[in-house]
UniProtKB/TrEMBL annotation, chain A:
Its main location: membrane. Pfam families: ABC_tran. The complex is composed of two ATP-binding proteins (GsiA), two transmembrane proteins (GsiC and GsiD) and a solute-binding protein (GsiB). GO terms for cellular component: plasma membrane. This is Glutathione import ATP-binding protein GsiA. InterPro entries: AAA+_ATPase, ABC_transp_ATP-bind, ABC_transporter-like_ATP-bd, ABC_transporter-like_CS, P-loop_NTPase. Residues 6-241 form the ABC transporter domain.
TrEMBL record, chain B:
SUPFAM superfamilies: P-loop containing nucleoside triphosphate hydrolases. Its main location: membrane. This is Peptide/nickel transport system ATP-binding protein. GO terms for molecular function: ATP binding; ATP hydrolysis activity. GO terms for biological process: peptide transport; transmembrane transport. PROSITE patterns: ABC_TRANSPORTER_2 (PS50893). It is a peripheral membrane protein. It holds the Pfam family oligo_HPY. Gene3D superfamilies: P-loop containing nucleotide triphosphate hydrolases. One of its GO terms (cellular component) is plasma membrane. Residues 6-255 form the ABC transporter domain.
Amino acid sequence: MSMLTVQDLNVWFGSNRDRVDAVIGASFEIPRGESFGLVGESGSGKSTILRAITGLAPDWSGAITVDGQQIGKARPKTFFKTVQMVFQDPYASLHPRHSVDQVLGETLHLHGFKDIDSRVVKLLDDVGLGQKFRFRYPHQLSGGQRQRVAIARALAPEPALLLLDEPTSALDVSVQAEILNLLADLRADRGLTYLMVSHDLSVVGHMCDRLAVMKDGEIVEVLDVAALRAMEAAHPYSKQLLEASV
Amino acid sequence: MMTNLLDVENLWVKFPTRQGVFDAVRGVSFTLGRERLGIVGESGSGKSMTGRAILRLIRPPGIVEADQIELEGVDLMQKSEKDMRAVRGQRISMVMQDPKFSLNPVMTIGDQIMEAYRLHSKASKSEAYAKSLEMLEAVSIRNPERVMRAYPHEMSGGMGQRIMIAMMLIPNPEILIADEPTSALDVSVQRQVLDIMDRLVKERGMGLIFISHDLNLVADFCDRVLIMYAGRIVEVCDADKLHEAQHPYTRGLLNSLPRLDAPRKRLEVLQRDPQWSTAPSVSGRI
């Protein structure tokens, strides 16, 4: 069964003269347990698709189905238990005056968990941080450690689908390797489904099973990673992107 | 024998903190000829600080110490602050990482480029205008007249970075220090910006210090590479031989990159050896 189906999705900002169509007629489907990548240059609308799914982009049309449930304008609480997002910039996505404990504790509380204390401990262990980071503030953490906290926060409600918006582009290559390994392990352990946005084709090639190439708000091609590795892109733009990144 | 434009010997950058003095750069030596010299390393390895220290841009309480920073036989360490101003921009210029933070948001791009030019030469306004247009064309900006009238927020990241490069190159410096000039840009735009820099460096015979965390990019683009770790140079090698590098740190960085042509189940994680940071710096002097 498919975890996420997006059909004929349009997303726009502004109205009348200032209207910008960020995503035009995007359709794709992700089966449960698959890792799907979205690549393209900045402004191609790949992050906007993620934002439309989570409800951060208010103006959209088309059909989004998560785990068999069609998404309307208002999202039920169960939606946020199923779908979580990790943002690009670990420096901007954590509250500067909340400790790691508060960040995770609040998320758990909002999702109605009772055993918050033991769950915070478990989450920190799962993302490889451990106890000693529990009462630190974001400024006391490195970029990689912050991204681990952001991943722990996303995992707190025990979601099935994780939306990853360039999770490693702000990190060093050595730290990127650690985070990518962590994400791969978590997916294997928990059977998560990933929708990952990246501008780095080699990262997507490493993490994903299939990917969609976007240009100017449209999906120009969906191909699997084997084809990507064999440099068998059909669309001229995907070819160009492949050549630029090898 | 290549002539050396810049000769840096035993450069230290220190910051006093409550926990004692922190050494950001520890005894780095290298020379720069008319070549493209890459400096790579992780964040916090001191690569940007090295670039800034050459221009003496580190302000107190930061401390810069060096046996010498020689620009064509003249020691920059001995110069007064006033004399340094004549060096900055005119003889050594620097392109910073993010164009959003380096351009003045309330001045038009034309005014900023013209200001940069007129500060260093006695050109009239109309001459400066013509020269600015010419520079914008040199960095492949379409419709430069419109761009001259525009404000920085109207520009995309790639255009902003090209404008920065135009601005830095207009006084015709001998050395360009580029601090992660393309890391805020897309892969496709990255290529364009690099090509432009490459062409200008070749045409004008400038020396380029290219600071980056992207090993593949540096291997592709530069002639010689310094690899920095914890404020020291751990390895110096020719850029085309970077993939045969010997030092475990360089190897670790290379292996931690995912590769399209060589898929792996897991990425190798860098195992840090405390010895790397205590070992003496390798000299990058020729």
